[in-house]
Amino acid sequence: RLIEESATSQFKLDWADVIPAEPVLFGDLADTSGNDPKKYFHMAEKEKLKSVMEEALEDYNTVNATAKMNLVLFQDAIEHACRIARIVRQPLGNALCLGVGGSGRQSMTRLAASMADYECFQIELSKNYGVAEWRDDLKTVLKKAGMENQQMVFLFSDTQIKSESFLEDLNNILNSGDVPGIYDSAEKDEIFLAMKPVVQAAGLPPTKSNLFSSYCNRVRQNIHCVVCMSPIGEIFRARLRQFPALVNCCTIDWFSSWPDEALRSVAHTFLGDLPELGAAENPALLEGLVT
Questions:
Q1: CA nearest neighbour of 226 among 149, 141, 290
Q2: Does 279 score more than 60 pLDDT?
Q3: 251-254: strand order across its sheet
Q4: How far apart are CA 154 and CA 226, in angstroms?
Q5: How far apart are CA 242 and CA 262, in angstroms?
Q6: pLDDT at site 280
Q7: CA distance 62 to 246
Q8: Which of 38, 58, 151, 162 could form a disulfide with 118 if both were Cys (CB 3.0 to 4.6 A apart)?
Q9: Confidence label for 38 from pLDDT (cuts 50, 70 and 90)
Q10: What string of DSSP letters covers 8-36?
């Protein structure tokens, strides 16, 4: 509201003339022309944007048949997907999604990554998953981003933190694109060989220092970390103090409690599949679930 008050008092402008429709959403998600790069513009048509995202969700579920997402795309969810997509589409774009579990942080990230044609990678925890398995997964993501020049979204949740060293490695990736000591000599030789044409094309001598620096820069450009955390409790504040890159190198997206409009959309969608309840003819039933 501070901007609205300043526009009125300082610039003598009517807010309705400055912002004809709210929320203000910019991005390239609604560009269905097939051009590359996509057109970045003000997405003012809500119904068109919702239709495009529902189609993208169907495409995602078709490709990921074993991990389908049964989502209701209400306005609040669409706004979060647009924010995350706008963040990861930028070089060095990383996001810190803050909210309680079940608020849609991971689902919206997967959908945004799919719409951006980025590969979304997430670790799979098991009983024996430890630091060695974590480092192997990290190397897989880093090599794809650095050696293969592939755009990657690395989705990580605080429920997957089995060791605080996970966050330390993530902090290093956000800062420099490298984790100290993660590569052995054979893997470094593989990196040097892959990066040699890139360094030579840039007019630099192919020294080991230039080769690895170019690799790390490419990793930072291509890897987009989306960290999902709960802001509740002292452990969250302690982690932010200990690993400052989680704030300094990330754009924060707050997932607050769902508004009434979202609850109505979810209730209407799922109760609509149960005609015996008569939810369509009984608005009070939906309102009872909301309140």
A1: 141
A2: no
A3: 119-121, 152-157, 223-229, 95-98, 251-254
A4: 6
A5: 36
A6: 59
A7: 33
A8: 151
A9: confident
A10: HHTS---HHHH-SSSS--EESTT--S--S
- CA dist 193 and 147 (Å) reads 9
Q: What is the pLDDT of residue 121?
A: 94
Tokens of 291: 């309140």
Distance CA 204, CA 188 (A): 19
Beta bridge partners of 226: 95, 155
**Who has greater pLDDT, 283 or 110?**
110
What is the sign, positive or negative, of the torsion defined by CA atoms of 135, 166, 223, 85?
positive
Rg of the chain taking only CA atoms, in angstroms: 22
Q: What three-state secondary structure class fits 156?
A: strand
Q: Is the pLDDT of residue 227 over 60?
A: yes
Q: Rounded to 5 degrees, what are φ and ψ at 152?
A: -130, 140
Contact criterion met (CB below 8 Å) for 76 and 261: yes
Tokens 């754009």 -> residue: 251
pLDDT tens digits for 105-136?
Answer: 999 999 999 998 899 999 998 889 999 999 99
Mean pLDDT of all residues in 237-261: 90
Q: At what angle do helices 283-290 and 260-271 cross, to 10 degrees?
A: 130
Q: Strands 152-157 and 95-98: what pairing? A: unpaired
**Cα 157 off chain centre by:** 11
How confident is the prediction for the chain on average, in pLDDT? Answer: 87
Distance CA 20, CA 126 (A): 50
CA dist., res. 33 & res. 158, Å (int): 38
**pLDDT band (50, 70, 90) for residue 288:** low
The average pLDDT across 41-70 equals 88
Residue type, 121: F
Instruction: Give the separation between CA 60 and CA 65, rounded to whole angstroms.
Output: 8
Query: What span, in angstroms and rounded, lies between the C-alpha atoms of 223 and 226?
Result: 10
